[in-house]
Amino acid sequence: MVTSYFWKILSQQVSLKSGALKLKRERAYLRTKMFSTPSDLLPTMNTSRLIDTSSAEVTRVIPEEEILQYLCPSLLKLDYTTWKVKSEVVLAAFTFVSFVFLITLAICNAFPAFRALVFKHKVFMCLAVVRGVYGFFGIIVGVYALFKTTNLDRDVVFGTTATSAFAMCVSVGFFLFEILAVVISDIAFGTFSRMLIMHHSLALTAYSLAIYYEANYSYGSKGMILEMSTPFSCLCYVLLKAGMENSRSWFVNQMVLVHTFHLRSVVECYLWYVTYQNWGNIWHRMPVPLLTLLYSNLVLVTFLMTPYWGYKKTQQLFNPVDWNFQETKNTDKLASKKE
């Protein structure tokens, strides 16, 4: 009787332990499902495109999905996970945009309309040209990231392509140049480009953290299309300084420029929608510094910078002035004679 009672108690304990082990396995399974397919736990969010990034699939280079294979196939062979390659690309980008700036400054003296400008206006025009060049690059990368299905869509946190990795490093080099150039010019000419310094500082920090963590390449690459306004802003500045503010070319360019800010708002809304779709994955897996900076930037760009710049460029459409320096019509030639 004692023996039977002993075996009864033992069998109950085994059953309890088996049940606990089963419950533990079920909880582990749910945790795994939460990371691989968050839609199980977040049914209101469409996260079906996500995959488990514990595999190397979302970082594997797929040549047919890369722009670099058409531009320079040798760039596909670089290992963008090493700091040596990252540093070389950043340095190369910084050197290239510095060269563009110096060449543009030298070319200004070849045209009488630009030769008459005061030096600080030449500097700001050359900086506008550099931003225009980066803007074309940003448009290409942004269109690729938005409309081509790649690893950037399969995992918005850790998905990587060779093109996006290259673009992120180039962006760090560009914004590093921009910060140095704007700060030096502000000190030299007694100006304070508050909005530009804030925008470029946040962008430099965000892209630097992205290549450090090797994450957020999806938002970083898609967000580069927001530079779509800079080529037209550059042309606006050049035409204005050439005294062509009343020409049809300037008006058409300014109309396009204003509408690029409308399109920027559309892209920003899309990025918020991508956040809604993938919030479970983003919240649980994106590094906290990147998460904080990403949405700080997105809030500022969506609700402050794009509306402000859009308003200023619309205002400039009806009153063609250089609003960096002037409140009346273009008087650069008169100013240069006085100086």
Automatic annotation (TrEMBL):
Q: Name one GO biological process term.
A: lipid homeostasis
Its primary localisation, in coarse terms, equals: membrane
Q: Which GO terms describe its cellular component?
A: endoplasmic reticulum; membrane
Top-level lineage group: Eukaryota
- Stated name of the protein: Protein CLN8
The membrane-topology field of this record reads:
Multi-pass membrane protein
Give the species this sequence originates from: Biomphalaria pfeifferi
Alphabetized SMART domains for the sequence: TLC (SM00724)
Q: Which Pfam families match?
A: TRAM_LAG1_CLN8
Record keywords, A-Z: Membrane, Transmembrane, Transmembrane helix
Every TLC domain range: 123-322
